Every structure is written in structure tokens, then in C-alpha cells.
Amino acid sequence: MTANIVQFCTFTLDGLWFGVAVDRVQEIVRHLGLTPVPLAPPVIRGLMNLRGQIVTAIDLRRRLDFPDRMTNDLPMNVVIRTEDGLVSLLVDQIGDVVVVETDTRDAPPPTLKGAARELIRGAYQLPNRLLLDLDLDRALALDASQSTTRPTTKVS
After folding, report:
1. pLDDT tens for residues 34-53?
2. SS3 sequence, the chain?
3. In 3D, which of 20, 17, 14, 23 has the Cα closest to residue 89?
């Protein structure tokens, strides 16, 4: 019997290695300018124009309660397909596509705290690092907890 496998599009955030299922990823885009959205939750960094289509950009660092990136560090965009259209996840760096066996997934590490722990489905121990399986549906579901005001750093 062959093992079930999944392909992950990988990226880094605050030194951690994350993955999302490749079949949910529309494309990877270098940094694009964002138009701020007045009164939007702080995790929504703005709107971007992707070849004529308006896409909401969610700062995954803020969504996971990580510190903001340095002002001069430009994020990359992982454009995700959802039932409601495209959404961009702002990440630090893009990695490779990684193939893993689904039955090798472990529980999230106990060192993850807060929102990061709630949004990770599990972890895969690979030869040289730990891959965290991000629960996209939960990460994209914004609620009242993301509506608190937080100081912003200009992303250009």
C-alpha cells in the first residue's frame, strides 16, 4: 500500500518554516504595493492589484502574533485560492515545494503559543528542519480578535 502524500508550498516567517497545500496556491508574487484599507483589522495590510484583480493582503506575521517585520524588509505574496476569491498571505521568504507523507505528521510543538499554536494543524520532522502545517481556513477566518488596534509599520 502506498502512503498518502501531500505537496506543500513552503515559506518562512520569523525564522520558522511553514507550509500550505500546493493545490490551494494560485501563485507566488514578489512584493507589490498595497493600498491601505481604512478601519480594517491590523492583520489586513491592504489591497493589491494583481493584473487587474483586487486582492486582499493579510500579514501572516500579525495573524500569528509574531513581531512586525523590519520596515526595510519587503514581504513576498503567497496568493491563495478561496471560495470567495484570491487572498494574499504576506510572508518573509518563499521556500521550495516539499513532498511529505501525511501519516508522518505530529502534533504542533508545545513551544508554539497563542495564535500560532491555534493555526497549526501539525508538524513534519524533516531531515534538517521542522515543517509547520498551517491551517489555511482558520488562518483566513478573521474575527473580532483581529480588530484591535495595533501600531502599524509602513509597508511600501
Report:
1. 999 999 999 999 999 999 99
2. CCCCEEEEEEEEECCEEEEEEHHHEEEEECCCCCECCCCCCCCEEEEEEECCEEEEEEEHHHHCCCCCCCCCCCCEEEEEEECCEEEEEEECEEEEEEEEEHHHCECCCCCCCHHHHHCEEEEEECCCCEEEEECHHHHHCCCHHHCCCCCCCCCC
3. 20
Q: Is 139 exposed, middle or buried (0-12, 13-18, 19+ CB in 10 A)?
A: buried
Tell me, yes or no, whether 154 lies in a domain: no
The answer to whether residue 41 is domain-embedded is: yes
Q: What is the pTM of this model?
A: 0.86
Output the domain CATH number for residue 129.
Answer: 2.40.50.180
Domain count, the chain: 1
For the beta carbon of residue 68, count every other beta carbon within 10 angstroms: 16
Let me know if residue 148 belongs to a domain.
Answer: no
pLDDT tens digit sequence for 49-105: 999 999 999 999 999 999 998 878 899 999 999 998 999 999 999 999 999 999 999
Look up the domain containing 44 and give its range: 5-139
